[in-house]
Design a protein that fits this description.
Elements: H1 5-11, E1 44-47, H2 60-68, E2 73-74, E3 77-80, E4 86-88, E5 111-115, E6 118-122, H3 130-133, H4 161-175, E7 180-181, E8 184-185, H5 188-193, H6 198-209, E9 218-220, H7 223-230, E10 238-242, H8 249-254, H9 260-263, H10 266-272, E11 278-281, H11 283-287, H12 291-298, E12 302-308, H13 331-341, E13 345-348, H14 351-362
Parallel strand pairs: 1-2, 1-13, 2-7, 3-8, 9-10, 10-11, 11-12, 12-13
Antiparallel strand pairs: 3-4, 5-6
Helix pairs in contact: 2-4, 6-7, 13-14
């Protein structure tokens, strides 16, 4: 998972800063290289917000279950608090992922904001201190799809990114394999505009814990966020996430006409390879056009497709079973298709199914 030499020579020549107070790293020999690193050719299984198919996302239970069942990396989405602490939530608007609406003391904080050019109504992390957010409890974001997960509603607090890093270290020790964190900067242009930039706060945690290239990969949909993090001169791989339509919001805000479609052309991929090590396209973009995977590999980029789920409504029509959109279809067949085509990683709500599918694809040799 080492960064490409040309990107390191451009962005990281001065070396990485470290902190004397960092938490002790894993003991020598305590963990094998993480999948996707220089020491492994296996595709990476990335627990999307943990094991979001089985536990409410971004909770300790979700991350722990993801690793227990085969995830190599766990993905925290990063948003800031009012006192500029990074917490992990799918969005900064938290009415769908916490019980904030049940707290009368916070009723007056419900508001409407414009985030990335769209009006959003609810409660926002940037209007709460960390101490206030810690009084809330996580709930299942998709209760109509995953009603089984609602049994866990109200059981766990909102986590900080630092707590996720500590948990990943503990899980690495427990399972004797190195677990990486895969943070995504959410709405970085918006947060920069209100004086809560994500990248310096992320860099402080990376330095404090001395996270290396086998422990952390930084992702964003906004190239300027990856550039801001690269300016911190830390030796970590970068992942350019790609949407299916439109353009990165920082491009929109700056009047840059470059779209996601442009970024997925051979020339666009060569540009991405100057600053990033991975692209993260929607899984549909790997299927159509089929050339994206080969073009990205030709440019020197690894490809991690998102988001794999097991429910019928998220599967290709040919792999659905029955008419219930929330029943499980043939998820194994979808993984087999993508592993067979050569993806380097899958981002999944069901890391257990992904790990089983990867093992089946690898065969007895394990490669």
């Amino acid at each position: 998972m080492s960064a490409q030499p040309r990107r390191r020579s451009i962005l990281l020549a001065a070396g990485a800063a470290t902190a004397a107070s960092a938490v002790t790293a894993l003991p020598a020999g305590a963990a094998a290289p993480v999948a996707g690193s220089a020491g492994s050719r296996r595709p990476v299984v990335i627990g999307h917000r943990g094991a979001a198919g089985w536990r409410p996302e971004h909770t300790a239970a979700s991350y722990t279950y993801a690793v227990q069942t085969g995830a190599d990396w766990i993905e925290p989405d990063l948003v800031p608090t009012k006192d500029h602490v990074l917490v992990v939530r799918h969005e900064n608007e938290i009415s769908g992922t916490t019980d904030v609406a049940k707290h009368p003391e916070f009723a007056g904080r419900r508001t409407t904001k414009t985030v990335d050019g769209r009006p959003v109504t609810g409660w926002f992390t940037e209007d709460f201190t960390l101490a206030e957010l810690k009084t809330l409890r996580a709930v299942e974001r998709l209760p109509l799809v995953r009603n089984r997960n609602t049994v866990f509603d109200g059981r766990e607090p909102v986590m900080t990114f630092e707590e996720v890093v500590r948990l990943a270290r503990e899980l690495s020790r427990r399972h004797r394999r190195r677990i990486a964190v895969f943070p995504e900067t959410k709405h970085p242009t918006y947060f920069r505009s209100i004086g809560l930039p994500l990248e310096p706060a992320l860099a402080r945690i990376v330095r404090r814990y001395r996270l290396d290239a086998d422990e952390c990969v930084v992702q964003s949909f906004e190239p300027s966020s990856l550039a801001a993090f690269a300016a911190e001169r830390l030796r970590l791989p970068l992942w350019q996430a790609l949407g299916t339509t439109g353009a990165p919001y920082d491009h929109v805000a700056a009047g840059d006409p470059t779209t996601y479609k442009d970024m997925m052309t051979p020339e666009g991929l060569r540009r991405i390879a100057r600053y990033a090590d991975w692209i993260g396209p929607d899984k549909s973009s790997v299927v159509e056009p089929f050339t994206l995977l080969a073009d990205a590999h030709r440019a020197g980029l690894k490809v991690g497709a998102y988001t794999f789920r097991a429910e019928n409504q998220y599967l290709p029509a040919a792999l659905r079973r029955g008419t219930d959109p929330n029943a499980f279809g043939d998820a194994f067949a979808e993984y087999a298709l993508h592993f067979g085509r050569g993806v380097d990683a899958v981002v999944t709500d069901y890391p257990d199914i992904a790990a089983m599918a990867r093992d089946a694809h690898a065969g007895p040799s394990g490669d």
